[in-house]
């Protein structure tokens, strides 16, 4: 009887030894310069968050009128633009976030048989990403319209030519009775009108338009004009008056400029950074341009409840030795704010991976049939 028990024990230990030797193992390591990959290795990285800012600013160009010096003399207008200027104002800021692979958090999953690795379910959740540069989705675009040339702001300066014809009297000598006599001769001479003369003509045209407008509004009721025709005529008169009036008071032209900026958080406590700079005279500027004031990015990690903190502390593991755990990162919700001169321009709540804890899950959950 004892022999049978001993014999059966030997057979059982042998079977367990065989199964133990044939068991497929999965190991996870953090690579270094000497790491050599085997044929069944799978490389993945943890995700990191890229915070993106789309900033829209309005650029306003002020052009003084060419007849600004004569505005008071001919029109009685005193407050007019006397010099060209450009001013900027931030109109809108949109805060968004993207995800890319973190080159500082790369892991290698090794298995004796690659069919035992089934990490793609975890990839689908976004908790880990395949380590590849194609995962990076980062673009920076600039949409800046060129400033309008000063000379092209006004296309119509006057309703009359700049050249005028004048009659001039010239004297010539004519031989009469063997004596030269001085005789007057009229001759037409083309001369350019002075700037003041052109300004006066423009002012006279403005008053002429206003006179015609009054005629439309006080028309004889015995010969009424169709209402739609009056409306269109008055609109055209107002348009012409505005164009000619701008020759004296100047023009204001505005356009929109949009730029995109990005920042990759480091995950530091009370992290702040300069994303871009802004100047009321130069507009949106890169971080390196010190002529503008800084626009500061600020991160505030929201406080976790006690249960969540206890879970993260117990699940966190900074030991990257060769053990059978899959590492991933849980993002933390942050208040992302943009500040300019201590004034908040924009704010949004975003999940940021870099502020989250490193956690782990046993590799056996990814083995075939688990």
Identify the notable features of this structure and list them briefly:
alpha+beta; 6 helices; single chain; 5-stranded antiparallel beta sheet; 370 residues; 6-stranded antiparallel beta sheet
Structure write-up:
The protein is of the alpha+beta class and 370 residues long. It has a domain at 25-147 and 254-366. Helices cover 24% and strands 42% of the residues. The protein is built from six helices and 13 strands. The chain has helices at 2-22, 71-75, 120-125, 195-217, 227-249, 306-315, and strands at 26-29, 42-63, 85-111, 129-130, 142-143, 163-176, 179-192, 251-263, 272-279, 283-285, 293-301, 325-340, 343-362. Strand 6 (163-176) and strand 7 (179-192) form a beta hairpin. Helix 4 runs antiparallel to helix 5 (227-249). Residues 4-23 and 146-151 have low confidence and may be disordered.
Quick recap:
This protein has helices spanning 2-22, 71-75, 120-125, 195-217, 227-249, 306-315; strands at 26-29, 42-63, 85-111, 129-130, 142-143, 163-176, 179-192, 251-263, 272-279, 283-285, 293-301, 325-340, 343-362. By secondary structure, it is an alpha+beta fold. The longest helix has 23 residues, at 195-217.
């Amino acid at each position: 009887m004892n022999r049978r028990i001993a014999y059966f024990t030997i057979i059982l230990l042998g079977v367990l030894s065989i199964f133990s030797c044939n068991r497929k193992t999965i190991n996870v390591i953090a690579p270094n310069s000497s790491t050599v990959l085997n044929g069944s290795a799978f490389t993945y990285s943890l995700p990191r968050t890229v915070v993106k800012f789309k900033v829209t600013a309005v650029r306003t160009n002020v052009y003084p009128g060419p007849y600004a010096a004569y505005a008071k003399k001919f029109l009685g207008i005193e407050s007019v633009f006397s010099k060209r200027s450009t001013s900027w104002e931030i109109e809108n800021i949109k805060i968004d976030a993207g995800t890319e692979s973190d080159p500082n958090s790369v892991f290698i999953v090794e298995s004796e048989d690659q069919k035992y690795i089934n990490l793609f379910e975890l990839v689908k959740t976004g908790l880990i990403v395949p380590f590849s540069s194609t995962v990076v989705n980062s673009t920076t675009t600039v949409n800046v319209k060129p400033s309008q040339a000063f000379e092209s702001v006004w296309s119509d300066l006057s309703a009359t030519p700049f050249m005028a014809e004048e009659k001039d009297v010239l004297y010539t000598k004519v031989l009469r009775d063997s004596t030269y006599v001085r005789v007057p001769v009229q001759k037409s001479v083309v001369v350019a009108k002075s700037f003041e003369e052109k300004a006066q003509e423009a002012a006279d045209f403005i008053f002429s338009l206003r006179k015609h407008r009054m005629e439309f509004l006080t028309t004889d009721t015995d010969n009424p004009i169709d209402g739609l025709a009056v409306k269109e005529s008055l609109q055209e008169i107002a348009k012409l008056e505005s164009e000619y009036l701008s020759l004296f008071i100047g023009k204001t032209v505005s356009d929109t400029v949009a730029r995109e900026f990005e920042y990759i958080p480091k995950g530091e406590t009370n992290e702040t950074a300069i994303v871009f700079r802004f100047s009321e005279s130069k507009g949106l500027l890169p971080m390196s341009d010190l002529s503008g004031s800084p626009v500061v990015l600020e991160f505030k990690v929201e406080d976790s409840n006690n249960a969540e903190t206890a879970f993260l502390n117990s699940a966190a593991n900074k030991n990257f030795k060769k053990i059978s755990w899959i590492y991933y990162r849980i993002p933390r919700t942050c208040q992302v704010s943009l500040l300019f001169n201590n004034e908040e321009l924009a704010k949004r709540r975003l999940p940021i991976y870099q502020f989250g804890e490193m956690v782990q899950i046993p590799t056996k959950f990814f083995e075939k049939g688990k």
